[in-house]
Specification:
CATH architecture of the largest domain: 3-Layer(aba) Sandwich
Distance between the termini: 55 Å
Subcellular location: Cell inner membrane
Shape: rod-shaped
Number of helices: 19
Structural class: alpha/beta
Largest sheet: 8 strands, mixed
Radius of gyration: 42 Å
GO molecular function: ATP binding; non-membrane spanning protein tyrosine kinase activity
CATH topology of the largest domain: Rossmann fold
CATH class of the largest domain: Alpha Beta
Number of strands: 12
Membrane topology: Multi-pass membrane protein
Protein name: non-specific protein-tyrosine kinase
InterPro entries: AAA_dom, Bact_polysacc_biosynth/exp, LPS_length_determ_N, P-loop_NTPase, Wzc-like_C
Strand order of the largest sheet: 5-12-11-6-10-7-9-8
Number of domains: 3
Helix content: 40-55%
Length: 483
């Protein structure tokens, strides 16, 4: 995955980053509030040597720098800490004094700085004053030769002792900035891990990669689609309707040398929008002037009749068992060249019925009666009905809902089709999240033409059931289409 891919994961899980940053800022603020203020008192020493001690300047400089390093260790020694405690009543032990002392030197110089950090400002200053006096006294004692001559090292206080007027810690601004940055990094890491661990189908590129088929459509999510699933009336001018029209175009030109006339619409799982996709695709094709026949072959849970407002009590199953002729049960929908064959009664053996010779013969006859036959089938992973129907069609269209189906489930559905040599025409990503820029472009470019809806619809957006046409009308329609 490239850098842009990781950035997309962070953007997708932005709430993880936000929560982590807020927690980190809260922890930094809590630590800042509960930390006692600390003050620093410091003193700076200058180490030098009399001119008669060392004649060579370079050797003298090296000698002093080595001495400065040794004095730094001497400042934090047990002996000096005990001398400080014995000199002044500080309320501290020698070990506590020793832990409060830090030393520092500047490279290439003979300056030595001692710093005492304490929660008590007065005690920090008093400790530093005592430490300075005892340290100078200790150095003179150590450096004085046994014969009583002048010591080769001279130690002078050039700065301090002085104490800071404000606490050096805690520093609220610094703590909050560090906490925020750590929270941001941790949140971004968690967001990436969450994204990598998320096995659900999240984008069109992953769908194409898993199925090994072209992306024919990316249908955007619309909050009102559940109440009004069909692209008729006001919904005909929505971005969702335009996406279905793009699917219609891609579907007709997916293979110009071998166009698919009988298309099975299926999905990996139930509830991914395959039935709605089949209905809307049929409507879009009929709007373009194609003679379309929509068949509800999901015999276990048929929904086409409910969506289109048609009576599905008699239909495909009755035709397959030989009780009625197909021309007697096919119904015209709206004022378009769209015919619908409902599912009919629920049979006890859907798979056997759909895989029968009667079904194969029916599809051969219907292929000659319409330009395009759209078949709504059962989900592939639930039952075998969808595969049985897809084998008899010219190709299959796999519908996947974004963020619901896992990549393994989509791969299993595609494998179920490929294993029986079904021609997978392409895939459709349903309920996809579309960028605001794309939605704005459509809203700015679309032209809304006032027009009456194609069919009357109720408040739920489902086509109202009109007066049933005579059986002979449907028979004549199929006869006319077959000519």
């Amino acid at each position: 995955m490239d850098v842009l891919g990781y950035l997309r994961l962070v953007r997708r899980h932005w709430w993880i980053v936000l929560v982590t940053v807020m927690i980190a800022l809260g922890a930094a603020a809590l630590v800042t509030v509960r930390t006692a203020p600390r003050y620093e008192a410091s003193v700076t020493f200058f180490v030098t040597t009399p001119s008669q001690g060392v004649t060579d300047a370079y050797q003298g400089s090296l000698f002093l720098q080595q001495r400065v390093k040794s004095y730094g260790d001497l400042l934090t020694s047990d002996r000096l800490a005990q001398s400080v405690v014995a000199e002044a009543p500080l309320g501290l032990t020698a070990d506590q004094v020793q832990r409060r002392i830090t030393t520092s030197t500047e490279a290439g110089t003979v300056l030595l700085k001692a710093t005492v950090t304490d929660t008590d400002q007065t005690r920090a200053l008093k400790t530093t004053e005592t430490l300075s006096a005892k340290f100078v006294e200790l150095v003179q004692k150590v450096e004085t030769p046994p014969d009583g001559k002048a010591p080769p090292i001279k130690l002078e206080v050039v700065s301090g002792p002085r104490v800071t007027s404000s606490p050096v810690s805690p520093q609220p601004v610094r703590n909050l900035v560090i906490g925020g940055l750590l929270g941001l990094l941790l949140g971004a890491g968690l967001a990436v891990l969450r994204g990598l661990a998320d096995v659900r189908m999240r984008d069109a590129a992953a769908l194409q990669r898993v199925t090994g088929s072209p992306l024919l459509g990316e249908i955007p999510f619309e909050s009102g689609a559940k109440a009004a699933p069909l692209i008729v009336g006001e919904a005909a001018n929505s971005p969702r309707a335009e996406a279905v029209r793009k699917l219609r175009t891609n579907l007709r030109f997916v293979d110009v040398h071998e166009p698919a006339r009988v298309i099975a619409v299926t999905s990996a799982l139930q509830g991914e929008g395959k039935t709605t996709m089949a209905c809307n695709t049929a409507i879009a094709l009929a709007e373009a002037g194609w003679r379309v026949l929509l068949i509800d072959a999901d015999l276990r849970r048929p929904k086409v009749g409910d969506y289109l407002g048609l009576d599905g009590g008699v239909g495909l199953t009755d035709v397959l068992v030989g009780d009625v002729q197909v021309g007697d049960v096919v119904q015209r929908w709206g004022d378009k060249s769209l015919l619908v064959l409902p599912s009919g009664a629920t049979p006890p053996n859907p798979s056997e019925l759909l895989g029968s010779k009667a079904m194969a013969d029916l599809l051969v006859a219907l292929r000659e009666s319409a330009d395009i036959v759209i078949i709504d089938t059962a989900p592939l992973l639930a039952v075998t009905d969808g595969v049985v129907v897809a084998v008899q069609a010219d190709g299959a269209l796999l519908v996947t809902q974004q963020g619901r189906t896992s990549r393994s489930q989509v791969a299993a559905a595609a494998h179920a089709l490929h294993s029986v040599s079904v021609r997978l025409l392409g895939c459709v990503l349903n309920m996809a999240k579309v960028a605001k820029a794309d939605a704005y472009q459509y809203e700015a470019y679309k032209v809304v033409v006032p027009a009456a809806p194609s069919v009357p619809t109720d408040r739920a957006g489902v086509a109202r059931r009109g007066e049933p046409a005579a059986v002979g009308d449907h028979t004549q329609e199929l006869t006319r289409l077959s000519r």
